[in-house]
Amino acid sequence: MTAHRTPFHAAVTGLGLVTAAGVGTKATWHTVTEEVVPSEVRHLAELVDLPCDFAYTIADLDTAAVLGVATQRLMDRFSQLAVIAAREAVADAGLDTATWDAARVAVVIGSAHGGLPFYDEQHEALAARGPRRVSPKFAPLTTVNGAASSVCRDLGAQGPSLAVTTACSSGSVAVGTAHQLLRTGACDIAIAGGAESALTRLLIASVCQLKMVSTRRENPSAACRPFDAERDGFVMGEGSGLLVMERPEHARARGATVRAHVSGYGASNDAYSAVAPDPDGNGIEQALRTAMADADVAARDVGHVNAHGTSTVLNDVIEASMLHRVLGDHPLVTSTKAMTGHTLGAAGGIETALTVLALEHQLVPPTANLDVPDPRLPIEVVRNEARPGRFDCAVKMALGVGGHNAALVLTRG
C-alpha cells in the first residue's frame, strides 16, 4: 500500500524540444499533430549491412552555428541537443538567467548512453593509432552527466545537478526526480528531461541482435508502428526534451504562465529480466498506481495517456493490458514514437513535453502508422488524425531495459 501524501503540483512554465519531428516546440508539435508521414527517417551510411540501417535524425540542425564552434567542441551531440532544448525552455518560461538565483536552479537530465558516438570514435583512434591519439576530452564528453553539466555551464545554473540513467525511462525519472527536489524545497526552479544521440553502429548492431528494432528497410518511414498488428520493433532516434518546472509559489510570485503541472510520480523495477519486461505488467502497474496516489487522482480522472508504445511485439501488449486493468477503456491513448523515433533516455522528456501540450491544447496526437490495431489491445488508441478531447489529467508512461519503470501524472495549468 502506497502511503498517501498531500499532492505537490510542480508548475511547468517552459518547454524545449529538439527532435526529428522538428527543432523547437512549435515545429515538433505541428509535425506530431498535423503530419501524416514521419519525417527524417533516413538510411545511414555508417549502418550499412545491418538489418536495421535507418534512424530518425535531426538532419537540418547545425549545432556549430547555434552554439558556436568552440562551445560545440566541448560537448558530445547529446549534450549539444540538451543545451539547445534548455535555452528554448528557459526562454519559453520567461526566465532571465542574469537575475535568477542561480543557487536555487536545479538541472536533472536523463540519458541511457551519454556520449556514445565520441566513445566509439576514440576507441577507433586508440586501436588504429595508439594511446597518444586519444583525446583528453574523452572522459568529460562521454559521461552521462555531460548533458546536465553542459546545461549548467551554459545557463549558469548552480543548484543540484543530477544525471539520471535508467535506460529508456531516464527522461521520465529525471522529471520525477525534479518534482521531488521541488517538493522538498531543495530548489525553486528545475530544468528536467532527457537527451540522447546514440545512433552508432555498435549500439544498433546490438539491438538488432536482440531483435528489438524493425527491419523494414524498404520503407523506413512506416517501420515504427506502435500498437499495430504488423509491428516488428522500434526505430532509433535522437533528440532532447526539457521542461522548466517551478515551485508553484515561485511561479506565482513572478507572474509566470503555467502550462501544466507535474502532480504525481511513481517508479519501480520489474526485478524480472535484463532485457524483457515482466509479462504480467506488475512493475509498470506499481509505478502507475504510485503516481496516481501521489497526485491523489482516480482512474476516472485520467483522460489521456502518452504511452511508452515502442512498437515492439511484447511491450505494447503488456503495457496496453496494464493500462486497461488500471484505467479502463476511456482514456485516449497515443504513442508519439512513430514521429520522433525511440530516443531512448530522451523519450520521457520529449513525450512528457508533448503531454503538457496535449493538456494545453486539449488535443491528443495520433499514433502514426497504426493501420490495423492489434486486436489483443483493450485500449482506445488515437490514430489517423489528432483527436480533440476534454481532460484535465494525463499520464505519461515509461519503461526501460533492466526493468526500470516510471509514471508521471500531469494536470492542466
CATH architecture: 3-Layer(aba) Sandwich
Q: Supply the CATH superfamily name.
A: Thiolase/Chalcone synthase
Which word captures the global form?
globular
Give start-end ranges of low-pLDDT stretches: none
Structural class: alpha/beta
The ordered string of helix (H) and strand (E) elements is EEHEEHHHEHHHEHEHEHEHEHEHHEEEEE
Biggest beta sheet summary: 12 strands, mixed
Report the mean per-residue pLDDT as an integer: 95
Say how many strands there are: 16
Helix share of residues? Answer: 25-40%
Q: What report would you give on this structure?
A:
- The protein is of the alpha/beta class and 413 residues long.
- The chain has one domain: 3-Layer(aba) Sandwich (Peroxisomal Thiolase, Chain A, domain 1), CATH 3.40.47.
- It has helices at residues 25-34, 63-67, 69-72, 77-92, 116-129, 138-142, 146-155, 170-184, 201-209, 248-253, 282-295, 313-327, 337-340, 347-361; strands at residues 10-19, 22-23, 41-43, 54-56, 105-110, 161-164, 189-196, 239-246, 260-269, 304-306, 332-334, 363-364, 380-381, 387-388, 393-400, 404-412.
- Strand 1 and strand 2 (22-23) form a beta hairpin.
- Helix 4 (77-92) crosses helix 7 (146-155).
- The protein is globular and about 60 Å long.
